């Protein structure tokens, strides 16, 4: 992967740190509020340093070291997983705003998204490992009478971890270029607002980078196609069309078709086809291309 230009990040280094530190310090009843602005700012500076170093070296050692240090220091101050999630979302939003300031910084935005994906994974792993160790220590100290309640807390934590990892897996929707100018986006699992936002940004970057003429959205793997999911997919398709790219919806099962009719969802202007093969044929036709067999020798 080509190492992106870090000029937008380095130029806004102090601005990002100031904005993120201020928001973290205002979060009520959080570990960041309890440790005070000085410690909070130091961790934001460490995160910014790790981001720049990792992007410059095209590796992810910095984010892992940063998260380990963050959890180790803030855990005794009542750090919760909600605190870590708020940190990641706040930091990501501020960096995204900076990296989006220059339209040509496509590689930088892709690198930033990949780094924050790693940040979420490492935060989850480190926090759950610390939680498990804490529960084991307290169970040994408090005795058997409190073991059941601690195990129940562990089960809740593991369930939270499972749900988050599933969200991460779903959010990392692959975008596959199948023919020059044509992308296929298979949607698998629950399609919610967070996932739609992440997918939209990723897809728009790929469309601009690959000069895509048609994007095929395959919804055959979406288990629940309700009003919310339909509206999110329609919004995604319309956003794609603003870039001059045709959006084609495939994988429309009879059940999903009935649901759309019952809900009164308007798919006007968005071609809907039954299979991926049909969608690819439509996309090829839009580019005046077709697949022909090779002549036999």
From TrEMBL:
- Which InterPro entries does the annotation name? Bact_StressResp_Reg (IPR051932), STAS_dom (IPR002645), STAS_dom_sf (IPR036513)
> Which ranges form a coiled coil?
137-171
Q: List residues of the STAS domain.
A: 172-283
Q: For this UniProt record, give its keywords in alphabetical order, as a comma-separated list.
A: Coiled coil
The answer, when asked if Transmembrane is one of the entry's keywords, is no
Q: Give the protein name, as stated in the record.
A: RsbR, positive regulator of sigma-B
Per the UniProt record, the source organism is Enhygromyxa salina
